[in-house]
Amino acid sequence: MTRVLLLGGTGDALRIARQLGREHVYSLAGLGKVPDDLACTVRVGGFGGSEGMARYIEAQRIALVIDATHPYAAQISANAVTASRAARVPCWALRREGWQPQAGDDWRRVGDWAELTAALAAFERPLFTLGREPLAHLDDIPAHQFWTVRCLDPHEGNARARILATRGPFTLEGERALFAAEAFDVVVSKNSGGGATEAKLEAARERGVPVVMLRRPPLPAVDREFERVADLLEALRIAV
Fold this sequence. Notes:
The chain is α/β, with parallel strands linked by helices. The protein has two domains: 4-96 and 217-239, Rossmann fold, CATH 3.40.50; 107-214, 3-Layer(aba) Sandwich (Rossmann fold), CATH 3.40.50.720. The chain has seven helices and twelve strands. The termini are close together. Its EC number is 1.3.1.106, 1.3.1.54. GO terms for molecular function: precorrin-6A reductase activity. Keywords: Cobalamin biosynthesis, Oxidoreductase.
């Protein structure tokens, strides 16, 4: 039997997890909703770095690691590769294609928080869709700006920041209504790819709103890489 350790936390990972039997393990960091309707074992929490993950792989007799984490979860992806090599098991990864700018888009690509804040200097009402990272900077908001931060968990804002605790997928109609109500003049986004949160880009395009796009981090090489869930599931069906 090929026992699988699936590292998840994304919608794509959940699709894979729903195809796994009880002998397999779906691992979550615990930052979002924990599913309670899966046949496989659900594990919540960290491993203690790559060494802890390697010990877990060996102790649980895992024969295949699948990294289906977020494209920006670079440290987890690096730990997965290091741990699988140490435990001498293969590591696969689901790495969906990023979004590409279309006609009418105005993207300003940045590599880190310093470049991001510099790119925002001329704007007043940004919509942040980076997850929790902007929450650490609420005390540093420039006097001319009012931030809207969309993330999974509730968090207290302040006089110059509103926190929207909500979870995708987001519809184009909903994004149009939000943009019209809040009059955003720039969107800040990760290039996550997929359809769950892409509607904000179409809404921005329709209104001529620029997008400050955080570049994807480099990720380590794996034994097999997939862009589509269907292709990974087919390979997994054969392997397991």
